[in-house]
Specification:
- The complex is a heterodimer of chains A (about 800) and B (about 250).
- Chain A has about 800 residues and is α+β, with helices and mostly antiparallel strands.
- Helix content of chain A is about 55%, strand content about 20%.
- Chain A is built from 22 helices and 22 strands.
- A six-stranded mixed barrel of chain A has the order 3-4-9-6-8-7. In chain A, strands 13-14-20-17-19-18 form a six-stranded mixed beta barrel. Chain A has a four-stranded antiparallel sheet with strand order 2-10-1-11.
- In chain A, helix 2 runs antiparallel to helix 19 and helix 14 runs antiparallel to helix 21.
- Chain A is elongated.
- Chain A starts with a helix and ends with a helix.
- Chain B has about 250 residues and is α/β, with parallel strands linked by helices.
- Chain B has a single domain, classed as P-loop containing nucleotide triphosphate hydrolases (Rossmann fold, 3-Layer(aba) Sandwich).
- In chain B, the strands form two sheets. A six-stranded mixed sheet of chain B has the order 6-7-8-3-9-10, sandwiched between helices. Chain B has a four-stranded antiparallel sheet with strand order 2-1-4-5, covered by helices on one side.
- The N terminus of chain B is likely disordered.
- The chains are: A alpha+beta (about 800), B alpha/beta (about 250).
- The interface between A and B is medium-sized, with 33 and 37 residues.
- The structure holds adenosine-5'-triphosphate (ATP) and magnesium ion (MG).
- The site of magnesium ion has 3 residues of chain B, from helix 1.
- Adenosine-5'-triphosphate binds next to strand 1, strand 2 and helix 1 of chain B.
């Protein structure tokens, strides 16, 4: 049996269906955003935790020059260390069939029994390599699929200067390479970088590493202090050319993954908050209007003896019904988008399986938040209805009083027509409501701006980095630091127009009590292929003496130009020296210290040693050069700029289109929700007024203009406000994206502003038109019979 | 207004508004309400006409049809040489805008505009209006120009509504119970204003009222009952509103 009040509730919901739908849609967007991001977050987190646990992802890592296997016993005795995995890791130049440029492969040793050790592999396809010396390898599935390789495919590699053909027998995934990206890169280029695993004995044979290792992975007890363990490891590895040990937080793949997760976490808070805030506002407006139009009914109910509580519940139920509708839609939509988002992430983060899980707790949290916001929205209006004394409520609503504001004495105001005056006075009469509408529409504008910000910024970052900083066509890394002869040899290769040597040294830079592991790059002072830039992206020269630090690195060290920092060389002779910071540079990708090539050679006392070279290439002879490079011994890897750029662009375009579309749709819902609702309420409040105007001979268009003038005005005010809020939010996001790996600049293009403004105007116009159709249905005669 | 049809020559040349066999039927489910049953009348320029009749007799229905707010179910309505019954919504709107002034029982002013602005609302879209402040002066509201409706008494509001109706120099002034929600002295003031406007501007004025005493100030009194004209009376001399009492 449905009670009379419930029937009234359904009737009201149906009667106000347009506005109820708009408010429910906005709620749905908020809930959908929340469910999408949180469920994607939890799904990825769950897959990661399971993967790391099942495949024994290491807790600490270290690279070193070469140490005897016997050192394992000492490492295992470090307190807190529970398992030690000693490996051989070598970067090699690859020739992949069907690929024009040379690729870089990372060869990792595989224990005789691949189901032992740390960072175990998941075998997706094929089989493990035969133990003992052979040409068999397993390749990362990601790399293999990108290059259309399968078990049975062969690739060429230069192992320790000797050309060798390797046969892929299986495809695998590793918890260490969930995000498989070449060292120093941000975006994966799976065609040109891949990880390969080879039987330990075979790899040791090829690289003269029998009985030795150059890479260490450790598992530690849960209670162990990472700092103490890595300090102990560093002490043991010091004589063996150990670079500093680090934990999972600095492990590149894991780090990308957690950065990405924390980013989703950030978006998962403010995006739903915007939507639910606006939906609360819409529900508030709806209820306030409902209470106003139903004053008589409320009084009647009270005079019949309905309790205040029952009447309060009636209006609260109205709000909850809207939110229930919105939540159901939002959860369904969120599950759909969430699954989509997880699929997108699965393209970048490689797990044996990344199932989308919509957990009950996410659903419950979403529902709780939505209902909470509805109750907040309902509480004030419900109190109004409850407090209304029955006698008072039976009288019609008191006449609307208007005032002439002080602003009306301003000359400009006197010249605006009646439509403008009506709009302005209606706004002035309810400044709070107008403000909320402006905030609601502005939130939509801001949503679009923020949605496009990351892309504007990455675009600028890529342009700056590859046009101003990294201007070479190719980087050639030499296997072990070579001399001037190696550079001379490169210059003689076909198609090479210009060669600039560089020296790259792993170092630790210390200032006061802070220390930071990084790379010190020596580049020629007169070089043009790698340039440093200032905050305005203007090139700056490398000083003949002293050090240039990336601003971010200086910040992390707490050092400023003029300070002297201590530098410890982490390979080779392990020299310690001190250098003054001469100035800071603002390149957007990565962090490093820079010195003049000769000054660095001098400091390291190894004049003539070269780590690699930057090349400028004659595009017409690229193929010849690539073929030659592939067969040049001593080359550890070649990075081609054009290829890197193209990959970044592809990744960007794909996610950009999706993101812009979703954000724009969501923002349009916000605008439609706010504008449609406030126009409908204006129509309900001022319907009589407008009908009178039609009686007086105003055409439909003119009346529409009078009705929507207020909305037009609010939209026009909201757009600049929203652009301001949007750019403010982006400014807040700048620190979120201020990372060691890359720093997004604060930058918004006029195109983004224009797009946000136009999208808002368009959805505002659509909502206005939806309401304008109702003006045709105004009953001109009925209005004359009623007192307003 | 675009002439939609030429009139038939039978119409007397001085008639401004003519209704021929006008009927209006409302259908409410199975029930048919005959609000008007074949009403014919011709209203002359400058005339002051009072429509009398019991509640529900069809007065408002007739007035609304004459004013182009409603369309009859049968018959024909002509404004000078234009046929209103076949006009489009746009044309009817133009007709109201240019030729008709309305005054209603509940004033129907825009609450967000002052007295002056309410009148200007109409003068701004009219082709040959009187200055808004002058018209408000004529109805005795010179010192109320900048008051909002909520700050005016009922009689003052009604006078603003009359000023608004007159400001466009309409050919026809249609008033549906203009004194209906006013007290005796205030009602009288409003009637004086209407009478004076009719006399000075020569506007054809039609006033609906329940109050038979008011009929004395008309040139012609039309009595309606159950949707039909049952009586038409010409007054030899119009009584002055201040001499009326009820
Ligand atoms: N929209 C409508 N739907 C159905 N019937 C209507 C409608 N409008 C008017 N009527 C009916 O038409 C008849 C005439 O109504 P009208 O409003 O013209 O009367 P009236 O003479 O103006 O009465 P009053 O003096 O009370 O204003 C009445 O019986 C009324 O019930
Ligand atoms: Mg009536």
């Amino acid at each position: 049996m449905v009670s009379a009040l419930h029937r009234a509730l359904f009737r009201d919901l149906w009667h106000l269906r347009g506005q109820v739908t708009a408010a429910a849609l906005v709620t749905a967007c908020g809930i959908a955003a929340f469910v999408t991001m949180l469920s994607a977050y939890r799904s990825i987190e769950r897959a990661r935790d399971a993967y790391y646990a099942d495949y024994r992802f290491a807790d600490a890592f270290a690279q070193l020059q070469r140490a005897p296997m016997a050192l394992g016993a000492a490492l295992a005795r470090i307190p807190g260390v529970t398992e030690v995995d000693r490996r051989i890791v070598e970067d090699v130049s690859l020739h992949v069939p069907g690929l024009l440029e040379p690729a870089t492969g990372r060869l990792i040793s595989l224990p005789a029994d691949p189901s032992t050790g740390l960072n175990r592999l998941f075998l997706r396809e094929g089989r493990w390599p035969k133990p003992g010396p052979s040409d068999e390898i397993v390749a990362s599935e990601t790399f293999a699929r990108a290059d259309h390789l399968a078990p049975g495919s062969r690739i060429g590699a230069i192992l320790n200067g000797r050309w060798k053909e390797l046969r892929i027998v299986g495809l695998v995934l590793s918890p260490e390479y969930v995000y498989e990206v070449a060292p120093g890169m941000i975006f994966p280029d799976n065609r040109r970088f891949g990880v390969l695993w080879m039987d330990r004995e075979a790899l040791a044979g090829a690289f003269g590493m029998k009985g030795a290792f150059n890479d260490l992975a450790l598992r530690t007890a849960t209670a162990a202090s990472l700092e103490e363990v890595t300090a102990a490891v560093d002490r043991l590895l010091e004589p063996y050319g150990g670079l500093r040990a680090y934990g999972r937080a600095d492990q590149p793949s894991n780090r990308f993954l957690s950065d990405e997760l924390s980013e989703i976490g950030v978006h998962a808070t403010y995006v739903p908050a915007i939507f639910l805030g606006v939906s609360a506002f819409l529900i508030y407006m709806l209820l306030a209007r409902l209470v106003a139009t139903e004053r008589g009914q409320i009084a009647l109910l009270k005079s019949f003896g309905y309790s205040n509580a029952r009447i309060g519940v009636h209006f609260a139920e109205f709000a909850l019904a809207i939110v229930a509708l919105g939540s159901l839609g939002g959860i369904a939509l969120g599950a759909y988008f969430g699954a989509g988002l997880v699929r997108v992430y699965h393209d970048y983060f490689h797990f044996p399986a990344l199932p989308f899980v919509l957990s009950g707790s996410v659903v419950a949290e979403a529902a709780l938040i939505a209902f909470g916001s509805a109750l907040v929205a309902a509480s004030t209006t419900v109190r109004l209805a409850v407090r209304l004394p029955p006698a008072e409520a039976l009288r019609p609503e008191p006449p609307k009083t208007y005032r002439r504001g002080r602003w009306e004495t301003i000359g400009a105001f006197r010249r605006i027509g009646p439509a403008g005056r009506v709009a302005l006075r209606n706004i002035a009469r309810r400044p709070w409501r107008a403000t909320m509408s402006v905030i609601g529409i502005a939130a939509a504008v801001a949503t679009v701006v923020v949605g496009r910000y990351a892309f504007d910024a990455v675009d600028e970052l890529v342009v700056t980095h590859f046009q101003t900083v990294q201007r070479e066509d190719a980087i050639v890394n030499l296997r072990s630091a070579g001399g001037a002869a190696a550079v001379g040899a490169l210059a003689r290769l076909p198609g090479v127009l210009r060669v600039e040597p560089f020296r790259s040294v792993p170092v630790e830079i210390a200032f006061a009590h802070r220390r930071k592991r990084t790379v010190l790059l020596g580049i020629p002072g007169a070089g043009t292929l790698h340039r440093l830039v200032d905050a305005q992206r203007r090139p700056i020269a490398v000083p003949p003496a002293g050090l240039v630090l990336t601003r971010k690195l200086a910040e992390m060290l707490g050092a400023r130009p003029g300070d002297r920092v201590q530098i410890v060389q982490l390979d080779g002779k392990r020299l310690r020296f001190e250098e003054p910071i001469v100035r800071l540079s603002d390149e957007p990708l990565g962090v490093a210290g820079y010195m003049d090539f000769r000054a660095l050679s001098h400091a390291l006392r190894d004049a003539g040693t070269v780590s690699g070279a930057l090349l400028q290439i004659d595009a017409a002879r690229r193929e010849d050069l690539f073929r030659a490079l592939e067969r040049t011994p001593r080359i550890a890897g070649v990075t081609i700029r054009a290829a890197a750029l193209q990959t970044i662009q592809e990744v960007m375009d794909r996610s950009f289109i999706l993101m812009t579309a979703v954000m724009t749709v969501f923002a349009s819902v916000l605008v439609v929700g706010v504008v449609y609702n406030s126009a409908r309420i204006a129509l309900s409040e001022r319907g009589n007024e407008l009908a009178s105007l039609r009686v007086l001979g105003f055409q439909r268009g003119e009346v529409t203009f009078l009705l929507l003038g207020e909305q037009v005005l609010l939209t026009l005010v909201a757009i600049p406000v929203g652009l301001g809020i949007g750019s403010g939010l982006c400014r807040l996001l700048v620190p979120v994206f201020d990372r060691e790996l890359f720093r997004l600049p604060y930058l918004l293009t006029p195109r983004t502003y224009a797009f946000a403004a136009l999208a808002t105007l368009a959805s505002s116009a659509v909502s206005g038109l939806l309401v304008a159709f109702r003006i045709d249905r105004l009953d001109l005669i009925a209005v004359l019979k009623t007192r307003e | 207004m675009n002439p939609s049809k030429e009139t038939t020559p039978a119409t007397p040349p001085s008639a401004v508004l003519v209704g021929r066999d006008v009927s209006k039927v409302y259908r409410l489910g199975d029930v048919e309400v005959h609000a008007l049953r074949g009403v014919s009348l011709a209203l002359q320029a400058g005339e002051f006409v009072v429509l009398l009749g019991a509640s529900g007799s069809g007065k408002s229905t007739l007035l609304n049809i004459l004013g182009g707010l409603d369309v009859p179910s049968g018959g024909e309505v002509l404004y000078r040489d234009h046929v209103l019954t076949t006009a489009t919504d746009r044309e009817l709107t133009r007709y109201r805008r240019e030729h008709v002034g309305f005054v209603f029982q509940f004033f129907n002013l825009l609450p967000s505009l002052t007295a002056l602005e309410n009148v200007e609302l109409v003068t701004e879209i009219a082709s040959n209006p009187l200055p808004a402040a002058d018209v408000l002066g004529r109805v005795g509201l010179t010192d109320r120009l900048h008051h909002f409706p909520a700050q005016l008494s009922g009689g003052e509001q009604q006078r603003v509504a009359i000023a608004r109706a007159l400001a466009k120099r309409p050919d026809i002034l249609l008033c549906d119970e203009p004194t209906g929600s006013l007290d005796y002295p205030t009602g009288k003031i409003v009637l004086e204003v209407l009478e004076r406007a009719n006399r000075e501007l020569g506007t054809l004025t039609v006033v609906i009222t329940h109050n038979a005493a008011i009929a004395a100030m008309a040139d012609r009194v039309i009595r309606i009952s159950s949707g039909e004209i049952v009586d038409v009376r010409h007054n030899a001399a119009r009584a002055r509103p201040e001499d009326l009492s009820w």
